[in-house]
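Page 42, continued from yesterday. The earlier attempt failed because a stray header line got pasted into the input along with the sequence. Redoing it now with the clean sequence only.
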Amino acid sequence: MPSSQCLTFRALAYNNAWANHRLLAACAGLGQDAFEAPRTGFFPSIRATLNHILVIDRFYVDALEGGTLGPAAWADPLPCPTLADLRPAQAAVDRRLIAFCEALAPDGLAAVTRVHRQGHVQEERTDRLLLHLFLHQVHHRGQAHAMLSGTGVPPPQLDEFFAAGEAPLRAAEFATLGWREETVWG
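This time it went through. Structure tokens are written below.
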């Protein structure tokens, strides 16, 4: 595989972290009651949806790192009851995913990742597992975004992918995250 594919996965990891940062920053405008309030979605609240993203991120990132956490990852479906707990926890797993993608070599994308499931170990190509994880995150962030639309907090724009001409628009957020454009693109 060409090394450009490694760059693509790296950029996806950074974009994922940026989208999580934007969404969680917007959710900071919610009170705890609104964060927990029943809403229409696959999960019954913004809190439950965002915790699900975190739990599944921990599950897959652990597997990508060679761990054996497996189903223990979702033993507690709400590990972060408040947004103050959730923001640093999500940022930490996002940094782990970025570090994994930054370290990827072209042959690593075709390598097998062992995912410890209930009663068996599933073997998946790393590139396929990463694509699955990124799609999972987009899917559930979209649900949280829609739920946020039903509150008094305007949902952030999440459908961007680092267009070069829009770098000035994200410079402040990148600075907050400790990134520059060169951080993402090498």
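Notes: The chain has a mean pLDDT of 95.
Reminder to self: strip header lines before submitting.
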